[in-house]
Design brief:
The protein is mostly helical. The protein has one domain (2-96). Helix content is 85%, strand content 0%. α1 runs antiparallel to α2, α2 (40-51) packs antiparallel against α4 (69-96) and α3 packs antiparallel against α4.
């Protein structure tokens, strides 16, 4: 039960982060004439959009692996937590701009 819920929430999270990065790109394009990546907040958002795919990939690799599965799971966990911290940093840096 936990495992499938974790996969569904992970897929939803990846979808929402990618949608947020795309919407942010579009909003900056409309509001500022396409001056992307000019603030720390935008760099953090772009990096979060890239990093969000890493836990998904490492989870799939760990699931398929026969050897070193435990090491791969720990990497999956560490990358996922780093992504969460990065997204929180992006949110707080966005609030600081207001």
């Amino acid at each position: 039960m936990w495992y499938k819920t974790h996969i569904y929430f992970g897929a939803a999270g990846v979808t929402l982060v990618i949608a947020g990065v795309i919407l942010g790109y579009y909003m900056v394009d409309q509001a500022h004439g396409g001056q992307h990546l000019r603030l720390t907040h935008s760099y953090i958002g772009a990096l979060a959009g890239i990093i969000v795919l890493a836990p998904s990939m490492s989870g799939l690799i760990a699931r398929a692996a026969k050897k070193r599965r435990t090491v791969l799971r720990w990497r999956h966990l560490a990358i996922g937590l780093a992504g969460i911290v990065l997204m929180l940093a992006g949110a707080f840096s966005g609030w600081a701009l207001e």
